[in-house]
Structures are given as C-alpha cells and as structure tokens.
Design goal:
The protein has 162 residues and is an alpha/beta fold. Helices cover 38% and strands 25% of the residues. It has a six-stranded parallel β-sheet, sandwiched between helices. Strands 4-5 form a two-stranded antiparallel ribbon. It is globular, with a radius of gyration of 15 Å.
C-alpha cells in the first residue's frame, strides 16, 4: 500500500451474516477484520447493522475487533420479522466519503444488486478495490459489471468460526 492510499470497507451486515449462513457456516468476525486489513489494506471497516438492544454484547465485540458500527433503526414486516434495511445508509456514507476524499478505494461487502449503482459509480471513478460477495448467489446486477469480485466462500477455511 502506498502511504497516501486509504482503503475503506462498507459492509452490509445482514447480507454478510445471511449469505454465509446460507452456505452452512459461521463467520469469525475477528479473523474477517484482520483478513480485510491484510488482503486489501482496509483501514476503516464500516459495518451497517440494524440496532436491537438485546444484541449489545455482539455490538461491543464487533467494535472491539475493529469494526466501526453504523446503526440503522429496525422495523418489523407484516409477519413480525426484523427489518434493518441499511442499503441507503451504506450508499450515502460511501458517497460522502468519496466526495470528501476520505478514501482512495472502497471495498463493498454484499451480494445485493441494490448496490449496483454505487459499485458502478466507484468503478467509473476508479475508486473500487473489490466487491466481496458473502453469497454464491451474487446479484447479476453486480456480476455483469466486469469488476473485481471475490466470493467469500473461497475463504471459508481462513474465516470460518470453529
């Protein structure tokens, strides 16, 4: 890494957790944070997550291992299932950081096609380092963009919670 480079990661926590769970394993978040630093030189790793008071110990742990938590107020769908849609907050934070020149490149961690416009914008501005897909079902809207794309399942041996 050059001394003037700053790499930030923007992580959709629900997409990360659910994508890995669909593949039948659990992520070791401390190893994941170290891996982001060692593999991509990530300085700041923003984890966008719905806020539930019962999860305060999880939030404390995530902060202790190096994530910067960005909380989203949760709501409930018609069946009572928690909804903590963080897409807009993640996109806005990445755009603000880009325009304020807080980073030189960004890593996006999600399989969600809702981030396609952000990824395309960062690619056009030559500020996209990588998209990391937690799911093997990465959206076509991301896959079709001819971008650096890594499927997290390829790192399972290094990152799985044992």
């Amino acid at each position: 890494m050059h001394s003037n480079e700053k790499i930030f990661a923007y992580i959709d926590a629900a997409n990360l957790h659910n994508g890995v769970a669909e593949l039948g394993w659990r992520l070791e978040y401390q190893r994941f944070r170290i891996w982001l630093k060692e593999k991509f030189d990530v300085v700041n790793a923003y984890l966008f997550i719905g806020f539930l008071p019962k999860n305060k110990n999880l939030y404390t742990y995530l902060q202790e291992v190096g994530f910067i938590l960005v909380y989203k107020e949760i709501s409930y769908d018609g069946t009572g299932k928690v909804k903590g849609n963080c897409d807009a907050a993640l996109v806005l934070k990445a755009a603000v950081d880009f325009y304020e020149r807080n980073f030189t490149e960004a890593v996006i961690v999600s399989s969600d096609g809702d981030y396609a416009e952000l990824v395309n914008f960062l690619k056009d501005k030559q500020s996209l380092r990588m998209v990391i897909s937690p799911s093997n079902k990465c959206s076509y809207l991301l896959r079709k963009q001819n971008i650096p794309l890594l499927y997290l399942n390829t790192q399972r041996g290094k990152l799985e919670h044992k």
